[in-house]
Amino acid sequence: MSNDPVQYGVIRSAEDLGKLVRAHRKQQKLTLETISGLGNLSTRFLSEFERGKETAELGKVLKALRTLGLEVVIQPRGHTPLKPLPKPEGDSHA
After folding, report:
1. Is residue 84 part of a domain?
2. Residue pLDDT, tens place only, 26-81
3. Which pLDDT belongs to residue 94?
4. What is the domain range of residue 72?
5. Spatial CA neighbour of 64 closest among 35, 44, 93, 88
6. d(CA 36, CA 65)
7. What does the pLDDT read at residue 3?
8. Is residue 86 part of a domain?
């Protein structure tokens, strides 16, 4: 396994997202079983997600990302990163 840092950045496909998530998880030395238990997600779902399954359920994808300490940022193509939106009061998904 490589010790190279994970290359975070623009995602243009389910396959891109899956590869990045797998690299991040492995860099953190976490197993699918660990993430499954922490996020209440099946190892089958996580494995399919990491392999780029196009039809992965969005809610579960977001839950997996949160469990791994990752987040989604939406911005216009070609723009520099936007400032984070203010968190709504009572937001439990921080």
Report:
1. no
2. 999 999 999 999 999 999 999 999 999 999 999 999 999 999 999 998 888 877 66
3. 47
4. 1-79
5. 35
6. 12
7. 66
8. no
Note the pTM of the prediction, 2 decimals: 0.79
pLDDT of residue 47: 98
Is 94 among the domain residues?
Answer: no
Please name which of 4, 42, 43 lies closest in space to residue 24, comparing C-alpha atoms: 4
Give me the number of domains the chain comprises: 1
Map the chain to HEC letters. Answer: CCCCCCCCCCCCCHHHHHHHHHHHHHHCCCCHHHHHHHHCCCHHHHHHHHCCCCCCCHHHHHHHHHHCCCCCCCCCCCCCCCCCCCCCCCCCCC
Q: Residue 57: which CATH number? A: 1.10.260.40
Is position 92 within any domain?
Answer: no
